[in-house]
Amino acid sequence: MVSAGLQSLIDHEDSLKSQLSAVISYQQTCKDGIKHPSIRAVIGLRLQTVTELTSNALALAEARDGGYPTWFSATDCGLSELHGKGLLKPNVVVAKDGSGQYRTVFEAVVAYSENRNHRGTYVIYVKSGMYEENITLKVRWGTVSMYGDGPRKTIITGRKNCHDQFTALRTATFSVRGKGFIGRSMAFRNTAGPEGGQAVALQVQADIPSPILQRVIQNSVIMVKKPLDNQQNTITASGRADDRQTTGFVIQNCQIVRGQELFPVRFSTATYLGRPWKRYSRTVVMESTLGDLIHPKGWLARNGTFAVDTLLYAEYANKGPGADTSGRVDWKGYKVITNRTEALAYTVAPFIQGDQWLKRSGMPFLLGLKL
């Protein structure tokens, strides 16, 4: 017989893992955003106990549950399915041409924050257009679902950056804080460029963000741009600080290509698939086409040998001139996957339990391997 407390843990395992992983990630991001070394050291020391307790809790979350993410209410599941069928009715509409209730996304977010009597999911539809705004959405009651006309049509853009004296946390074009945000069919971007230093497009500090925003990048074109002189490009920098965290990146069935400005200097300006931001950084690139811009080593070290034994970087069944693995890094944490069964562990079904909820979301996706 399973006790009520244990059964509750089992029933909410995936959601719990996501929440605990988010706690660790946010702690690390907060600490990294402090520029003064002595203050950063003091904050790190005071966070140590909390980090250890969170890591221990994450170790206890070992069961699994089915369906949509467990924090999705029945209404959220229904709204997701309605969106997939094109039948979703929004609470408010944003349109630059004045055909909605509001012309800016900011106004719609304010309307939500002032609507304290609303129950359930508050739906915001952002029509096609370029919205030059910096927005912080604080989800204080219910959940918020925001959708557009597609990532190439509905774009929220900004250019705050660290060079202009903003901390990395404050550069976000769109920031979500709170519990329960569902975002889809729109793009968030930061156009600060390499001159701006660190600059964030989308920041999610939600306790339980939708997995629609998580981890797996499929069927996409990743265009790499020219950095400043004497700099290099890294496509990913996973911040996985605990080996039990469910975080990491999977790039599947994508094309990694060079932008127009990078083309003439692509062999003298190194581009890497990733570098470790934290000790247990995890990135898998598979079934993708890698252009000739990818450096033969493939992956970039950070501070000498930091994390090279504890990270997990892997490649599987890639093609193209940048996919040759014969000259890759010789790290304990790097591998070329040759076993199909091993590669399957990083596909949508097992990695984000996509087989249990993505089919009803209306999004195109690969459930397993392409071939």
Automatic annotation (TrEMBL):
GO terms for biological process: cell wall modification; pectin catabolic process. Residues 91-208, 216-355 form the Pectinesterase catalytic domain. This is Uncharacterized protein. It comes from Vitis vinifera. The keyword Hydrolase applies. Pathway: Glycan metabolism; pectin degradation; 2-dehydro-3-deoxy-D-gluconate from pectin: step 1/5. Residues 11-60 form the Pectinesterase inhibitor domain. Keywords: Aspartyl esterase, Hydrolase. It comes from the Eukaryota.
